[in-house]
Automatic annotation (TrEMBL):
Transmembrane segments: none annotated. It comes from Magnetovibrio blakemorei. Residues 1-100 form the NusG-like N-terminal domain. This is NusG-like N-terminal domain-containing protein. Pfam families: NusG. InterPro entries: NGN-like_dom, NGN_dom_sf, NusG-like, Translation_prot_SH3-like_sf. Gene3D superfamilies: NusG, N-terminal domain (3.30.70.940).
Amino acid sequence: MKAWYVVRTKTRSEEQSARHLSNQGFEIYLPRYRKQVRHARTVKSVLRPLFSGYLFVHMDLGQQRWRSINGSVGVISLVPSADAPKSITGEIIDLIRAREDKDGTVSLVPQGLKKGDQVRIRDGAFAEYEALLEEVSDEKRVILLLKCMGSEVRVSTSLENLDKVS
């Protein structure tokens, strides 16, 4: 019976590993998100793995030669449990896929929130202030535009520290 398994990859080798495993006939899922990268006064949007150093493979341990995965380019190993790889539930993959947009990239903004939404900060130095959701960073943190003393200030906080303003 087919199940999902987690593959640990070398640093920044997720794409390469996914390509090689796919060429070997494995069904691969590498969820990615869009990140804004600033370099030399330019900003561009790039795709990055949602889970740095990991990807998912869907296979049947009894039917497929899964041990070859550990020797594939860019792969460290399948995440083990005793003497076999540890499976994860398909619901986890379904939850990640449910957050994908039409381009197949995963949205880091929680459901109900989107870029440009008016939010209220719950705790901290800016508790009860309202701000505009500007950007979501890698570490489950958001960048907000906060109107403070007559100007707009960029502040960072965690996603959990926000409420959407109706």
